[in-house]
Design a protein that fits this description.
210 residues, mainly beta, Immunoglobulin-like, 2 domains, four-stranded antiparallel β-sheet, 9% helix
Length: 210
């Protein structure tokens, strides 16, 4: 953050205008420079709007919240990296001094969506299909499952799954879903569903990465 020079009480009633003109020019330019920090400046469309919000690191967090000093950066971005056929949605994000990103706003589909939190990307979804007795295989691709769905930018750390059954009570036969570790990438994963019952109609999945 820059230091902006500003002289108070200028112009002064007892001063010759030629004396006050130089500090008045400095003051005017400092105001222009100050507005330009985290804002759209004078003589530009949408002047005065925030471009990003920086917050100075505090000596200590406000009482009664314990913890180390923090730096918060809040910014807005239409976030659609590496997607096709999706309409951009404006999201609000916060970034810590160490680079952790949290998504503060956003619209996610009820049964299928994604969200950033604390530098991690969480994605979830549902595979809906009737499974017969035996083995069924398939693939979940993170990108474009729903509008704005994206791959993990770097890594997918883990995937968990939960079977969904058809009947009002759990079927007598259990089901298992295996993830092929060789296919678990930032883009997708292959799965294998096994059961000796036909009373299952799909499964939920949940993935964590960055």
């Amino acid at each position: 953050m820059a230091n902006f020079t500003y002289s108070r009480d200028i112009p002064d009633a007892n001063n010759n205008p030629s004396v006050d003109q130089p500090p008045m020019k400095v003051n005017t330019n400092s105001l222009d420079d100050l507005i330009g920090v985290d804002h759209i400046n004078f003589n530009e469309n949408d002047g005065g709007y925030h471009t990003i919000i920086h917050q100075k690191a505090q000596v200590a967090d406000p009482a009664p919240i314990p913890g180390p000093p923090q730096v918060g950066q809040v910014y807005v971005k239409s976030y659609t990296p590496d997607t096709t056929g999706a309409v951009a949605d404006t999201q609000l994000y916060s970034q810590t001094a160490l680079g952790g990103v949290s998504q503060l706003t956003g619209n996610n589909a009820q049964n299928d969506g994604w969200v950033w939190s604390g530098g991690l990307l969480y994605q979830w979804g549902r595979v809906s299909q009737a499974f017969g007795s035996g083995i069924t295989t398939g693939t979940v691709t993170y990108k474009d499952r729903v509008a704005l769905a994206i791959p993990f930018p770097n890594n997918c750390f883990m995937v968990t799954t939960t079977p969904i059954f058809l009947t009002a009570t759990p079927p007598n036969a259990t089901a298992s879903i295996s993830i092929d570790s060789a296919t678990l990438t930032r883009l997708k994963f292959d799965w294998q569903f096994f059961s000796n019952s036909s009373n299952y109609k799909g499964f939920f999945w949940f993935a964590i990465g960055n």
